[in-house]
Specification:
Radius of gyration: 16 Å
Strand content: over 45%
Mean pLDDT: 92
Order of helices and strands: EEEEHEE
Number of helices: 1
Helix content: under 10%
Length: 114
């Protein structure tokens, strides 16, 4: 039961080409945005789309998979956890960012997808 305390699963489309960073420690990190859509009908019965954007971070072997196979527009499934961190911007203001740290990436769509 402890594994579901902070567990996120998302299916969406990659919004930008992933950025891969090689850290001085030798670790690799991949970052990309993921769009998830929800559909509903408004009062007039018109179909509406609500899009949410998520920042996804992947480390190590998962980052290598992202680097090799994940491209803008690709549909992927993500399993991981939420992580919130803070930083101070150039104006000396405290900012907070919540990211999805991916443990697993599932490549969806057909094999013909580029």
């Amino acid at each position: 039961m402890s594994t579901i305390k902070n567990h996120v699963q998302l299916i969406g489309n990659v919004g930008q080409e992933p950025t891969i960073t090689n850290l001085e420690s030798g670790k690799r990190v991949a970052r990309f945005s993921l769009a998830t859509n929800e559909y509903y009908k408004d009062k007039e019965g018109n179909k509406q789309t609500d899009t949410n954007w998520h920042t996804v971070v992947a480390w190590g072997k998962t980052a290598e998979i992202v680097e090799k196979y994940v491209i803008k527009g690709k549909e992927v499934g993500i399993s991981g956890k939420l992580k919130t961190r803070s930083y101070t911007n150039d104006d000396n203001e405290q900012r907070y960012v919540t990211e999805v740290v991916a443990d697993e990436i599932l490549l969806l769509g057909s094999k013909n997808d580029k």
